[in-house]
Amino acid sequence: MKNDEQNLEKTIQTENDTPHYKNFKAEKTELKSAKSERKIKSLQKNLDELQFKNLSLLAEMENLKKRLEKERKEIINFSNVALLQELIPTIDMFKKALSAKNISPEIKNWLLGFEMIKNNFDQILEAIGVKKIEVKVGDEYNPKYHEAIDAKYSDKIAKDYILEVNQTGYLLNDRLIRPASVVVSKGIELTEEREIKE
Predict the structure, then answer these.
(1) 184 pLDDT band (50/70/90 cuts)?
(2) What CATH number did the domain enclosing 171 receive?
(3) Using CA atoms, how far apart are residues 177 and 168, in angstroms rounded to an integer?
(4) Is residue 20 domain-resident?
(5) At residue 24, does pLDDT exceed 80?
(6) Which of 43, 131, 153, 154 could form a disulfide with 189 if both were Cys (CB 3.0 to 4.6 A apart)?
(7) Which residue has the higher pLDDT, 176 or 23?
(8) Strands of the chain, DSSP E
(9) What is the pTM of this model?
(10) What's the total number of domains in the chain?
(11) Model confidence pLDDT, tens digit, residues 164-176
(12) How far apart are CA 24 and CA 28, in angstroms?
């Protein structure tokens, strides 16, 4: 029995040493290697795709953060605009009271208090980014910042220039809260008498 086992081992060993078996073994190794290479390429492709998706998602998330921050600031500014539109008429009332003439001494004391309140409002508005629209008689009319409430003829002010300023306008961070209320010049009135004299 021992001899049979030895003969069997010799036969197997001899078969393993044949060129045909060696070629088969080499082909099998090549096939395994090719399969492994394809598998590696496939895995690398999947990894590259996942990395690209990851980078895309990170960029999208960053853009979303920026957009949400911008929207949050706009909402805050918009809510400030609504509040300021309600508050500014009160400031206008203080200004009207302060422009009163021929007043008694008792009222002068009240006006001093009004002036302090108005100045405090002005400081608060400036601190949160509110600016007055600077406009004066003789400035060119700009529909972006001025609201024409009337138009009158004038010998002194050219056509489409401001003749009177009735109400101050305001901006919040370059956003219009309220336009300045103005009267615009129509220029010189041409009448029949004037035309004849000329």
Answers:
(1) very high
(2) 2.30.22.10
(3) 11
(4) no
(5) no
(6) 153
(7) 176
(8) 130-133, 146-153, 162-167, 169-172, 175-178, 180-187
(9) 0.58
(10) 1
(11) 999 999 999 888 9
(12) 6
